[in-house]
Every structure is written in structure tokens, then in C-alpha cells.
Amino acid sequence: MHPLEKSEPYPQADEVTLRPATPRDADLLRFWRSEPAVRRFQPLNDLPSSQLRSDLAHQRIADLYKGRGDKYQWVIQVGEQPAGWITLVIGNWEHGLAEVGYALSTPFQRRGIMKRAINLLVDDLFGSTQIERLEARCALDNVASQRVLESTGFVREGILRSYFRLRGTRVDNYLYARLKPST
Q1: Is residue 5 scored above 60 in pLDDT?
Q2: Under a CB-based contact definition with an 8 Å cutoff, are residues 98 and 116 in contact?
Q3: What is the value of pTM for the model shown?
Q4: How far is CA 9 from CA 77, 136, 147, in A?
Q5: Distance, CA of 139 to CA of 146 (rounded, Å)
Q6: Which of 43, 45, 91, 144 has the fewest CB atoms inside 10 Å of its own CB, making it the most exposed?
Q7: ∠58-62-64 over CA atoms, to 5°?
Q8: Residue 69 has what DSSP assignment?
């Protein structure tokens, strides 16, 4: 069993774990993506559950550890409750480049959950995959996401001007990155 498929104890009141997303999670992901607090800083498309289900059916988490594939998703669990998701998109296997994105459902925000989830994922990625540079982006107004990234060892590298369109307006984003520690 892979480390992200089992629970690791935490001293905090809420146990945070990650599990690979499956096609059964499509309706949940669709619901989360529709929440105003989740959409506030992200240009999330309205995707039908059938498309999300199909995308998740093609995901092979084992490929991540073999240096193959291009997109992976995990569900963040708080105790037995699904709370949000993390997406990993591989930019280039040869150079060990990937990007992480994430969101928590509204009732789980502001509880330190995302920090713990990101740390779980980053530790696993740097310890068990070929990924050496992990990037993340967030809107300049998304202070909560900036705090998560900075508290998990990501460094702000610059501003991506007019990076995407959000509700008809071009939005600047910060670029963050975390590098695999040298061994």
C-alpha cells in the first residue's frame, strides 16, 4: 500500500489524510467546484459529472511513481469526511516540473487543513517521485492561499500579469515554487 492510501496520525484534533480521487467522487467534485467560496479566486469551468467521472477513470496514481502521466487528483479527508481536493499537473517529467492546485469546501476552510494536506503531498512527491520543482499559482487577492503556500515552504517568485480571466476580468497571479531538497 502506498503512503497516501493509508492514514497517518496527527496530533491535531482533525485527522487529515489524502486518498486518490475515483470516479465515485465526480458528483462531490462538481458540487465543490460550484461553491462561491471555492470559485471566488479560481476560474473553474462548470463541468458535468460525466466528464469529471471520465477524467478520474483514466487516472492511474501508480503511474505518478513511475514517472508517467500528466494529471492526478486526491480527495482531502478530515476524519471520515471528504473536505476538498488537490490536483497535480505534470509540466515536464524530464525536468521534474509539476504544478499543484487545491481547494477546500467552505465548512473546512480556515482550520489549517490545507496546510496539512499540502505537506502530506509534497513530502510524498519529493520522497517518491521524480518531481524536483513544484509550482503553485494564486490570485493576488487570495491571501489565505498565499499563507498556505508560504507556511508549507513555497517561495513567491513573481507576478504573472493578467494570468487568467475571472468573471470577465483579467487577474494577476503570484507564482510560487518549492524545490526538492538537495540530498
Answers
A1: no
A2: no
A3: 0.88
A4: 13, 27, 24
A5: 9
A6: 45
A7: 90
A8: -
- In angstroms, the Cα distances linking 24 to 20, 56, 106, 134, 160 are 11, 9, 21, 28, 35
Helix (H, G, I), strand (E, B) or coil at 5: helix
Say if residue 76 is exposed, middle or buried (CB neighbours under 10 Å; 0-12, 13-18, 19+). buried
Burial state string for 48-74 with b = 16 or more CB within 10 A and e = fewer than 16: eeeebbebbeebebeebeeeebeebbb
In tens, the pLDDT along 67-102 reads 999 999 999 999 999 999 999 999 999 999 999 999
DSSP letters spanning 8-62 = ---SSSS-EEEEE--GGGHHHHHHHHH-HHHHTTS------HHHHHHHHHT--HH
Q: Cα–Cα distance between 87 and 73 in angstroms, integer?
A: 4
For 38, other C-beta atoms within 10 Å of its C-beta total: 19
What domains does the chain contain, in order, with CATH numbers? Answer: 3-134 (3.40.630.30)
Q: Is the pLDDT reported for residue 64 higher than 90?
A: yes
pLDDT above 70: percentage of residues in the chain: 92
The angle formed by the CA atoms of residues 56, 59 and 64, to the nearest 5 degrees, is 145
